[in-house]
Amino acid sequence: MNAIQQQSGVLQRRATAEIGRIATFTAGAVGVAALHLESGLHLTWRSNERFPMASTVKMPLALAVIDAVARGALSWTQLYEIDEAEMTPLGSIGDEFPHPGVALSLANLLETTITRSDNTATDVLFRLVGGPAAVRAYLEGIGLGALEVGRTMRAALCVMHEIDPPPAEVSMRRALADLPPEKLAARSRTSTGEADYRHEERDHGTPDAMLELLRRLWLREGIEPTGAERLIDMMSRTRTSPSRIRSRLPHGVQVLNKTGSGTGTANDLGYLALPDGAGTVALITYVKGSPLQVEERDRAIADIARLVCDYFLLFAPRAGEV
Q: I need a surface site. Which of 45, 135, 276, 290 has the fewest CB within 10 A?
């Protein structure tokens, strides 16, 4: 090993240790996986540990949608009706359309799922691809079985808000309408009678597995190229949780991401397109079991994202150097 390789190893160890130091400020557990897609340089922290995916589960669902279109089972332009029972609150569709008679194209359903994290659109997509079991089978078939998709958003919301599943004909919009504020604010809850936040009742994945999903998506590896390009473009328009990955990055870094939130949980993942020919970084940041306010969880993610970005800006080879 030459002196340059030794120095690189020291810097990587120091960056990893700094991620661990920042993680302690969540008072929970943090998982990080980052990969410079052009060079293979990487940083990880507890990256093979299981974390609740929250709404980042919508990324593997999106890949199943792309696969269904590629097989001819679905069409980007066809209109699909949204049943009243599929309506959920706290999303653009459930909030804006109080009356029956809503239909959206597959492209618009996926757009709102990614950019707004709309749970109504998500559950329509689950229905169209055959449900969570079909998504899980698809993931296992392509070697991403560590992403444990098992619940619709309807089921996930019941777990998060700690309510029994309503009758099939009753929407979550109706079921959650009369909940007290402390149950409605489940994402921001700072304490609970169950220290694990009903941990095992939620869908899980490892940062490593989600990083592999992002790597394949970016490289169009086993994913239909036009659909992959469509999804990545949607990620550039994400509006949720701006105080996480994107909040403290240097000027000139473009972020394409998807967030997820839950009780004790804050997640963000995506791509950092670095300036000046420095390449692209795929980044996963997961927080679980944090008793702190969601703002504190977000701050740790923002700090880690800045550290990861600076590390790759300084040490990843530029175009022509790989």
A: 276
Identity at 71, one-letter amino acid code:
R
DSSP secondary structure string, 173-201?
HHHTTT--HHHHTGGG----SSTTSSGGG
Asked if residue 185 lies in contact with residue 117, where contact means CB atoms within 8 angstroms, the answer is no
Question: H helices then E strands: how many in the chain?
Answer: 12, 9
Q: Which residues of the chain register pLDDT less than 50?
A: 3-4, 191-194
Q: Could you tell me the residue ranges of all domains in the chain?
A: 14-315
* Residue tagged 């009356």 (tokens): 99
Distance between CA atoms of residues 103 and 39, nearest Å:
44
Q: What is the DSSP string of 247-312?
A: GGPPTT-EEEEEEEEETTEEEEEEEEE-STT--EEEEEEEEES--S-HHHHHHHHHHHHHHHHHHH
Q: What is the pLDDT of residue 7?
A: 61
Tell which residue, 268, 321, 293, 317, has the closest CA to residue 41: 317
**Plot region of 198 (φ>0 → left; ψ -120 to 50 → alpha; else → beta):** left
The count of other CB atoms within 10 Å of the CB of residue 234 is: 19
pLDDT reported for residue 193: 45
Check residue 320 and give its pLDDT: 63
Residues facing residue 222 across a β-bridge: none
pLDDT at 144: 97
Residues facing 287 on adjacent strands: 30, 266
Q: How far apart are CA 193 and CA 217, in angstroms?
A: 39
Which residue intervals of the chain are DSSP H helices? 3-23, 58-70, 92-96, 106-115, 119-129, 132-141, 153-161, 172-175, 181-184, 207-219, 225-235, 294-315
Q: Which two tokens stand for residue 232?
A: 């990545």
182-224: pLDDT as tens digits: 677 666 655 444 456 787 889 999 999 999 999 999 999 999 9
Q: Which two tokens stand for residue 38?
A: 């052009």
Token pair, residue 248, equals 């403290």
Output the CATH code of domain 14-315: 3.40.710.10
